[in-house]
Structure formats: C-alpha cells, structure tokens
Write a structure and sequence with these properties.
This protein is mainly α. The protein folds into 3 domains: 30-136 and 153-200, no CATH class; 235-260 and 290-429, no CATH class; 437-660, no CATH class. The chain contains 26 helices and 2 strands.
C-alpha cells in the first residue's frame, strides 16, 4: 500500500505536490494553498516593483486579503477575490491554499509575529514548489526549453525577491507606528477571519457606522455647540481692544477700528487657507490615513507662513500705504503702530486656527472652549493692565501687546491640550513632505479664501459707502455689521461641524451617510437662520441702546434690524451650504458663485438702491440680502444633489496622492539601509 501511494505521488505534477498534509500540526488551518512562481500568482502580480509615484502599495496587514482572510479589512469592496479567481481560472482552476493560523491572538502581539507565520509559510511553499519543479522537470525539458523561458523565470524570481524585501521593510517601518489593538477571535469554517484589528484611537468606524436622521442631528449638535462658544469667545478679542482704547480719545478709537479692519481682512485670508483642512483632514481621517492628517496640517501651516510674509511687510510699512487712503497723519501713525506690533501675533493665530481644524477632523471640538475660557478673561485683565495701569501701563500701544500675548497663550495651551489630553494620535512627526504639493493645496485654499473674503469685504464695502450718507448712518451700519458678525458665528460653527462629518464619510466612501449629513446640515441652517432672525427682531431696541445713546442712531438701528434679521435666514443657509461644499471638496464652485453674485449683482444692486432710489442703508441691505438668497439657494441645491461619483473620485485621487507620498517617505526611511545592503541580482537568484 505504501509503495503504491509513493508511486502515485511521484507521478503527480510537481505543482500539485506538497511537503505535508497537516499531520502533527495542532494549529487550525484555513485554505491558502500553493502560490505559483509565475506572474499569475496574486501576490507577485499585486506586489510588483513599485512605481515612483504609484499608489497600489499596501501595508503588510493587507496580505490577509490575498490569503483569503479578512484580517484588517475595512471594506469588503476592497477584496481582490474576483480578480484572483479570474486569474486562477485561466490557469486551470482555483488553487487550493492552506496556511496555519495560531489558535488565539496574544494580548500583546509583536508586530513581526502578526505576519511572520504568513511570510515563513509562503516562502517555504514557494521554495518547495520551485525546487520540486526544477528537480523533476529540468531533466525532461533541459534541451526543449524555449530560450526566453530562463529569462522569464529569472524575472519572476527577481519580482518575488523584491516583493519579500519590501514586505520585510514594511514590517520594520510599522514597528514605529501605532500598534493595533488585539482581539480574541475564532477562525470560521469557510476560511475567513473576522476583522480583529482596530485602531487604538479610532473611536468611530465611519465605514460601518449606521446613520439615521436623528442620530446625525445629535452628532451635529454635539459638534456645533462647543464650536459656537469657541467662535463667540474669539470675537471678544477685538471688542475688548476697542472698548479698552475707546476711552483714550477719538483718534485712538478710530485708529483701533482701522487697524482691526485691516487685520480682519488679512487674517480672513489665512482663515480661508485653513478651510482647505475642512476637506483634507476629515477625508484622510475617515479613510484611516491618520498620518496624512498630520502631514496636511504641517503643509497648510508652512504654506500659510510663506503667504504671510508679504502681508507682514505691508503691515510694517502700513504708514506709507495707508497714507494714500487716509489723509489724517495722526490716525495713520497710530494705526501703523498697532499693525507693527500685531505682526508678532499673526503667526500664533494662524497656527491656532489650523490646529483647531486638525482636532476637529478627529471629532475633538471642545478643545477651543477650554483654551478660550482661560484666555478670554486673561485678555480683559491684560488689556486693562497694559493700557490703564498707572505703574506698568503703556497706554494705546498696550492694546496690541495684550492681543499678541493672548494669541501666543492660546497657541501654547492648545499645544498642551494636544500633547497631554487628546489629539496627538494623528501626529506622525515632522515631515519634509509639508513643503511639497502646494499646488494641490492651493486648489482648495484659494476658493476657500474667495468664499470668506467675498462676504467679509462686502460688509466692509457697505460700511464704506454708508459713510457717504452721514455720520449717523455710518454709526448705525457699524453697529449692525458688528452684531451680524457675532450672529454669523452660529451658522459658521454648524457649517464646520457639517463639513467635518461629510468629509469623514466621503473619506470612508459612504455616500449614503454623507447625503444624510448634507440633509441634516441644510435643515439646521433654516432653524439657525430663524433663531438669529427672532433674536435680532425681538432684541432690536436692546441692541441699539448697547451701541449708542444718540436718538437718531438708535432709531436707525431699530428700524434696520428687522430687515437684517430676514437677511440672516439666507446668510445662515449661505454659511452652512458653503461649508458643506468644502466637506465635499467642491469649494471651487462655491468660490466662483460667491465672487460672481456678490460683486456682479449684490453690491451694484445695493449701491443702486441706496443712492439712485435714495433708500440709503435699506437699499444696501436689500442688495446684499438678494445676493445671499441667490448664493444660499444655489449652493444648497449643489449640496443636496451633487454628483457623488465625482466627489468620491476626487477624494480617491487625493488619497492616491497621499499613498504616493507615503511610499516616497518609506523609500527615504529605508534608503540608508537599502543602499548599503542592496543585494545583487546574482545573490538574489542564489538565495532563492
């Protein structure tokens, strides 16, 4: 019987021979089989020598996909079973694949032990089959082999050797990255392993999250409330500055107002640049690319710092440039002094805004509240001390000094929060990739700048033209604009929350959940707009008396606020719809819409109604309100009915670019070891 079995096995094709059938092995087995030393081998096919800017390189954990398991598989759509099956059927049928799995996963697994058994089994079977084929077939086909067959086998061996080397390099690299959280699982009879690895810090699984309207509304509310408080507290800084300096004299108050307008317009540019992170960071986080979140942050900060250089030069020589606009030399001199000190405060403010987006992408929205609850009271104390204190007070110049100190304190506290509380899990260390791919970043940053600056400048233009109607009209318009800026923070915060959720789901390739987030965001814009409208109308007399004691100014404010309240409904829709477009990565469309409607329709219409039809402030606000209505309705439609296929394709293109960066970083990480120990082609062949 033994002789017959031996003869039968000897007559089998070498590729069908095995070096064991599991006897004496107490490990569980699933189907894994022989991996042929040919290009039809799914591993060799999938892990060919990587291209310089390719994006098909995967982590060693994705080997589970090729071995028939679902270890670390986040989405069943990512499986390559169909591709492998088609390839194998062309070769004569599905391969029988077996591999030994440990019966349980250790609570503290080593990174190498997770896949060493895969690599060892794969190398053993590959080597055995290759040697068997050479030993049994070589004698028969030595003289009948085509001339190019040796070259083909040599190329296959090189491909396989390169693949195994890169996998082992990935093993070494992943030791320095976040360790997976283990789980005790059993292997199913069908040869698959449930998803046993989850990120330690990835609290939400966007790829499997069940989203309904009620649950999404709760999440949006939990995100929005901290942001609303954060933005309202931020608005206290210029208000405190004006109130502190206002009692020094009318020239000082006018200088602070002019300086605040200049800084607001300038910092809005960097606020617009940081809105690119509303798209990039949440999409990277939703797709599981945590390291990419930190790289996007560094790139945006570096880009902003370079853009800030010409603005800093303008602020330093502002006395010369403002002299062409303002004729009063004393006012220009005081404004220039303020701006020169403010140069030191802009960098921490820019970094602070980017760090907020970095945390928001991870679902951390309350960090800003904790920081500002400390800094806002200190800002009041510092401003009063440096301006009015008899011993250390320095008068007018103390206001910008207090502002700079508080900006640096805000940045320091937020960094401490990230380091010691939450948020550092997506920080992969400083990376020189932050100084690359700025063109791709600018494609998102420039539309974001246009979207914010278009609306901010429209308010400034309205204020400028209202000065031609008289001092009372200018005072009333200034008070109304300041109030609208405060109320605008509510829909702006809700919009950022919505864009974060939408971008998370787009990154996770969940268009169904992204649709629901869009619907909830747009519906919330109507409630927020109605809330602002009711507040402005019901509190119009109180608001007017806060800003002025002049009867004419109070009457103008009281009469104008009902119209402004109605406009705020469309302004809320405009703010939240624009943010949702950023979450979808479509801010370029929003930038064009804002630019065209505001400056080709709304502002000309307001000037026409205000001057030609003598409607004054009412004409200006009817014009700007009409523009907000058109922008809000257009952007709202685009948010609710986008081409989700294109949205996902653009997100996938950004993800592929990030993967290409990851590959380049890996190449550089291992360059020193690889260059020194690079084996020659002959040594690879001998080794195999």
């Amino acid at each position: 019987m033994t002789t017959m079995l031996t003869k039968s096995l000897a007559q089998m094709h070498p590729k069908l021979r095995t070096n064991g059938m599991g006897i004496g092995n107490n490990h569980r087995r699933i189907s894994l089989g022989f991996l042929q030393p040919s290009k039809r081998n799914p591993l060799v096919k999938k892990y060919k020598p990587r291209r310089r800017y390719g994006s098909d390189q995967q982590s060693f954990r994705s080997l589970g996909d090729d071995f028939g398991s679902t270890v670390a598989r986040e989405d069943p759509m990512d499986a390559i079973d169909e591709e492998v099956g088609d390839t194998e059927s062309q070769d004569g049928g599905e391969l029988s694949r077996t591999v030994s799995l440990p019966s349980r996963v250790s609570e503290t697994p080593d990174v190498h032990s997770e896949v060493d058994w895969i690599l060892e089994e794969h190398e053993r079977r590959y080597s055995t089959a290759h040697r068997s084929e050479e030993g049994s077939v070589q004698d028969e086909t030595e003289y009948n082999r085509p001339p190019d067959q040796d070259e083909q086998e040599q190329q296959e061996n090189l491909e396989y050797g390169d693949f195994m080397k890169r996998v082992r390099q990935q093993l070494m690299y992943d030791v320095h990255r976040r360790q997976p959280r283990p789980s005790f699982v059993s292997v199913s009879s069908r040869g698959s392993v449930p998803n046993i690895y989850e990120s330690v810090d990835h609290e939400e699984d966007y790829k499997r999250e069940l989203v309904i309207f009620k649950s999404e509304a709760k999440v949006l509310a939990s995100y929005s409330i901290p942001l609303i408080l954060t933005f309202l507290l931020e608005q206290l800084f210029p208000l405190v500055c004006s109130l502190t300096v206002g009692h020094l004299g009318k020239n000082e108050l006018a200088a602070v107002s002019l300086a605040s307008m200049t800084t607001n317009i300038t910092l809005a540019v960097f606020e617009g640049i940081s809105t690119s992170l509303d798209t990039l960071c949440p999409q990277a986080y939703g797709s599981g690319n945590y390291r990419g979140v930190g790289i996007h942050l560094q790139r945006c900060i570096a880009f902003s710092m370079v853009v800030y250089i010409p603005f800093a030069i303008f602020w330093y020589f502002s006395e010369y440039f403002l002299g062409f606009v303002v004729k009063e030399k004393e006012l220009v001199s005081l404004t220039a002094k303020f701006l020169r000190v403010a140069i030191l405060g802009a960098p921490p403010y820019i970094i602070f805004e980017n760090l907020k987006r970095f945390l928001q992408a991870q679902g951390i929205f309350d960090a800003g509240i904790y920081v500002l609850l400390i800094c806002a009271p200190l800002n009041i104390l510092t401003s009063y001390t440096l301006v009015w204190n008899s011993k250390i007070g320095v008068g007018y110049i103390g206001a910008p000094i207090a502002m700079v100190l508080n900006f640096w304190l805000m940045l320091a506290l937020l960094l401490l929060y990230i380091l010691y509380v939450d948020g550092k899990q997506c920080w992969g260390g400083f990376n020189k990739k932050a100084f690359t791919h700025w063109k791709a970043l600018s494609e998102l940053a420039i539309p974001g700048i246009i979207m914010l600056e278009a609306e901010d400048l429209s308010y400034e233009i309205l204020t400028l033209f209202s000065s031609y109607f008289g001092t009372s009209y200018l005072a009333a318009q200034s008070a109304v604009s300041t109030t609208v800026t405060l109320t605008y923070m509510i829909p702006f915060a809700v919009g950022i929350s919505s864009s974060t959720r939408i971008a998370n789901f787009v990154g996770a390739r969940r268009p169904d959940c992204a649709k629901m987030a869009c619907k909830v965001g747009i519906l919330c814009s109507l409630f927020v707009g109605l809330f602002n409208c009711v507040v402005l109308i019901s509190c119009r007399e109180l608001i007017a008396n806060v800003y002025s004691r002049d009867a004419e100014v109070v009457k103008l404010i009281t009469d104008l606020l009902p119209l402004v309240g109605a406009v705020e409904i469309f302004d809320s829709l405009n703010a939240i719809a624009g943010s949702c477009l950023r979450g979808q990565g479509m801010q370029a469309i929003g930038g064009v819409i804002n630019l065209v409607v505001y400056y080709l329709l709304a502002i000309p219409m307001g000037i026409l109604l205000g001057w030609t039809f003598d409607m004054k402030l009412f004409g200006l606000w009817i014009g700007i309100g009409t523009g907000m209505f058109l922008i809000g309705m257009t952007e709202g439609y685009l948010v609710l009915f986008p081409n989700w296929k294109k949205v996902l394709e653009r997100a996938e293109m950004r993800k592929e670019a990030e993967d290409a960066e990851e590959l380049e970083s890996d190449d550089e990480y291992f360059s020193s070891d690889s260059d020194e120990n690079e084996p020659t082609e002959e040594s690879r062949l001998l080794h195999r």
